[in-house]
């Protein structure tokens, strides 16, 4: 709108003409909002409230008489309060560049004054103290012209060709170098000790490894020796087992053979002996019956009957010898003697029956039986 003016955020609008401002100021100050300004009757100017910078390069003499070139940077601006804006407006509104020039000159003077009361050692080692003192001494003076200093930085201090700062630093450099050498020696010693410790550990590890390897090799050798011995021992054990098994088999075969012999020879002989015994008992029973019959019947008829039974008796006696194990000692004569013996036995039996029935011929019957026994002795039954 025509006649309405608004200042920027970092500006203060100064309106002159008309009534005076606060505190008898020759202009009114407007910040942060706009205002309607009558053309022709009012005049509007703007004062920058932005940050500004001033650089100072000043040659100063210390309390020791040593010349130093000090370089510093000052950051400043117009104060935000009404009084500072009025003071700065009255001084710098027409030429705002003069704020940096004037600020540099003010700080240069304070730097010369303060550095003149300090030694080079203090200036070099206590730069922050120097900056603080300069700010404190310049604060009231800067406020009078409406300026506010935000910071002061001492960038460099140079003694030119005097070499004082260099000489001053030599003891410190020597101490530093000595400390560095000591530290280096300590580090070297520590490194050497570490290397020695590492070497000892490696040697111990190698020794332990060698021991373990030796134990392992010994164990392997023992296992191999046991394995080598296991073959012959196993073979001998197996052969012993085979011999034992063969012995047990031979014993079992012997027992089996004994059983077979008992089955083939002993039992048949026992059966044959039993058969002969049974036949003898039967014959004796038959004789008894016949004797009893003879007592009640005719003697002639009985003898006839005995004569008729004589072949049967001889046959039975021969049958008893059929299953026996008979060894003939004298060939064909022996066979004839066996046959004659059988017939003689039959006759002896017949003669005995007769004697028992009639009581006659007892002596002859004994001789005949004896003769029959003599004949039988020519063969043996097994």
TrEMBL record:
Residues 2-172 form the Band domain. Residues 360-372 have a biased composition (Gly residues). Residues 360-382 are annotated as: Disordered. Its main location: membrane. Keywords: Membrane. Coiled coil: none annotated. The keyword Membrane applies. The keyword rRNA-binding does not apply. It is found in: Membrane. It holds the Pfam family Band_7. Belongs to the band 7/mec-2 family. Flotillin subfamily. This is SPFH domain-containing protein.
């Amino acid at each position: 709108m025509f006649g309405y003016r608004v200042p920027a955020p970092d500006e203060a609008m100064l309106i002159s003409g008309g009534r005076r401002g606060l505190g008898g100021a020759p202009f009114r100050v407007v910040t942060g909002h706009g205002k309607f300004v009558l053309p022709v009757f009012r005049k509007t100017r703007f004062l920058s409230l932005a940050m500004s910078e001033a650089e100072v390069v000043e040659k100063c003499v210390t309390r020791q008489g040593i010349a130093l070139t000090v370089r510093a940077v000052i950051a400043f601006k117009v104060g935000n309060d009404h009084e500072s804006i009025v003071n700065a407006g009255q001084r710098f509104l027409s030429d705002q560049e003069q704020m940096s020039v004037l600020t540099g000159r003010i700080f240069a003077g304070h730097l010369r004054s303060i550095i003149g009361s300090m030694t080079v050692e203090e200036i070099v080692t206590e730069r922050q103290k120097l900056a603080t003192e300069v700010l404190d001494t310049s604060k009231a003076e800067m406020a009078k012209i409406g300026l506010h200093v935000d910071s002061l930085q001492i960038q460099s201090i140079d003694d030119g060709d005097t070499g004082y700062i260099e000489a001053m630093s030599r003891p410190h450099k020597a101490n530093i170098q000595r400390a560095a050498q000591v530290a280096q020696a300590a580090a070297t010693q520590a490194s050497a000790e570490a290397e020695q410790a590492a070497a000892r550990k490696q040697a111990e590890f190698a020794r332990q490894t060698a021991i373990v390897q030796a134990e392992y090799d010994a164990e392997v050798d023992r296992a191999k020796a046991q394995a080598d011995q296991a073959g012959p021992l196993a073979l001998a054990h197996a052969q012993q087992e085979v011999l034992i098994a063969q012995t047990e088999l031979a014993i079992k075969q012997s027992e089996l053979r004994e059983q077979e012999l008992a089955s083939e020879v002993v039992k048949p002989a026992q059966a044959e002996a039993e058969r002969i015994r049974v036949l003898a008992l039967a014959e004796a029973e038959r004789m008894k019956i016949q004797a009893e019959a003879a007592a009640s019947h005719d003697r002639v008829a009985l003898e006839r009957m005995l004569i008729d039974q004589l072949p049967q008796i001889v046959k039975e006696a021969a049958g008893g010898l059929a299953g026996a194990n008979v060894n003939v000692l004298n060939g064909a004569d022996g066979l004839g003697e066996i046959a004659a013996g059988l017939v003689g036995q039959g006759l002896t039996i017949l003669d005995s029956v007769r004697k028992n029935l009639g009581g006659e011929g007892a002596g002859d019957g004994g001789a005949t039986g004896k003769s029959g026994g003599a004949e039988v002795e020519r063969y043996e039954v097994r």
